[in-house]
Amino acid sequence: MKEEIWNTKMLFEQIQKDNILDYKNLNAIANKIEMLDKNYTSELKQIILDKADIIKLNNLKEKYNNDKKIKNELLNELKEIASYYGLNSEN
Fold first, then answer.
1. CA angle 91-38-56, nearest 5°?
2. Is 5 helix (H, G, I), strand (E, B) or coil?
3. 3-state DSSP helix/strand/coil percent for the chain, to nearest 5?
C-alpha cells in the first residue's frame, strides 16, 4: 500500500528527498497526494504532473547533472498554490 501525502509539509519533504529528474518519481508523488480539499489536491497534482511531462519531453534527466534548479522551480510553484489556499509548507 502506498503512503499517502495528506499535508503540504509532507509533500515538500517528499519532493526534497526524491530525485525529480526521474519523472516517474514525480508521477508517484502526485498519485500519493490526498489532501482534505479536493480542489487543492487536484491543483497540486496537476502542477507536479505538468513538471513531470516537461522533464520527460525535454529529456532533462540527460541535460542536468542534478535536480536542484527544477526542484526549486517546482517548490516555488507549489508554494504559490499553497499560499492561494492560505497554507504554507508547514500545513
1. 85
2. strand
3. 65, 0, 30
How big is the chain, counted in residues?
A: 91
Distance from the Cα of residue 41 to its chain's centroid: 11
Q: Specify the residue for cell string 492561494.
A: 84
In this prediction, residues 8-30 reach a mean pLDDT of: 96
- Calpha distance 23→51 (Å, rounded): 8
The three cell numbers locating residue 39: 480542489
- How far are the Cα atoms of 8, 36, 44 from residue 20, in angstroms, in the given order? 17, 25, 15
Q: Taking the model in full, what pTM does it have? A: 0.93
Q: Please measure the distance between the N-terminal and C-terminal CA atoms of the chain and give it in whole angstroms.
A: 24
> Tell me: the pLDDT tens digits for 62-73?
998 899 999 999
Q: For residues 11 and 72, what is the distance between their CA atoms, to the nearest angstrom?
A: 14
Within 13 Å of residue 64, how many CA atoms lie on the same side as its CB?
16
